[in-house]
Amino acid sequence: MLVPLAAPSASAQSSGKGFLFGEPRWTMTLRGGFDRAIAGSDIFTFMTDTLTLDKGDFSGFTFGADLAYAVTSRVDIAVGAGFVRSSKTSEFREYIGTDDLPINQTTTFSRLPLTTTVKAYLYPRGRSIGSLAWIPTRFSPYVGAGGGALRYDLRQEGEFVDTQEGTETFDVFYDNFVSSGWTPTAHALVGAEFALSPRLGISTEGRYGWARSDLSADFEDFNPIDLSGFSATMGFIIRF
Questions:
Q1: Domain count, the chain
Q2: Which of 115, 134, 157, 170 is the least buried, fewest Cβ under 10 Å from its Cβ?
């Protein structure tokens, strides 16, 4: 005797046995990792030449969140935010104070992008059984691109050197140099999602972001600052 396929029960749906009532439309991702600043403009070259800094000191750990809506079975539109910050104490390479102590300062560099991304999945993210049950695919690679706005903040606080042109005389003074603001940004990404259950999963992602901005008056003699960077992150996924 043939028995018709019954609709999955609510208890089965919540127990994580492998399916949901229909394909989920929303996905929340919480991610963290490391962001490598490109630091390609002359302000960074000046800092690394005169202070005991290198380009790696402008990179740092990053974290962020994305909320995505599935417009089709293989295309999402996601809005997200991220944050990366570095802080490093340094000293002048060629000068030392009259007290024979280093001339110290602290450099802080942070970036906060607010973006919209279109993500395209290379394969279907799941399959339907009958008219109700939906089972996620274990592995779902994707690519994406988008843009938005980026808030940056670059500041140096501490002791600095004022040289007398044509002499070896210099003065040491205390100051706080700041440049900050909003600028457009664009990015491209590639990643993959791994299903742990119908509602939960993990993700890995590589993202390259492009951005530049004019510096504030404290750094007026320099070209626009390079705010680009590459991040590698892992995330925790919730579908609903």
A1: 1
A2: 157
CATH number, residue 232: 2.40.160.20
The string of pLDDT tens digits covering residues 194-224 is 999 989 999 999 999 999 999 999 998 899 9
- Measured in degrees and rounded to the nearest 5, phi and psi for residue 217 equal -60, -25
Is 18 a domain residue? Answer: no
Handedness of CA 91, 95, 97, 99 (dihedral sign): positive
| Tokens read off for 14 | 């919540």
SS (H, E, C) the chain: CCCCCCCCCHHHHHCCCCCEECCCCEEEEEEEEEEEECCCCHHHHHHHHHECCCHHHHCEEEEEEEEEEECCCCEEEEEEEEEEEEEEEEEEEEEECCCCCEEEEEEEEEEEEEEEEEEEECCCCEEEECCCEEEECCEEEEEEEEEEEEEEEEEEEEEEEEECCCCCCEEEEEEEEEEEEEEEEEEEEEEEEEECCCCEEEEEEEEEEECEECCCHHHCCCCCEECCEEEEEEEEEEEC
- Residue 8 pLDDT grade (very low, low, confident, very high; cuts 50, 70, 90): very low
Domain assignment present for residue 6? The answer is no
Expressed as residue numbers, the domain containing 139 is: 24-239
pTM for the whole thing? 0.87
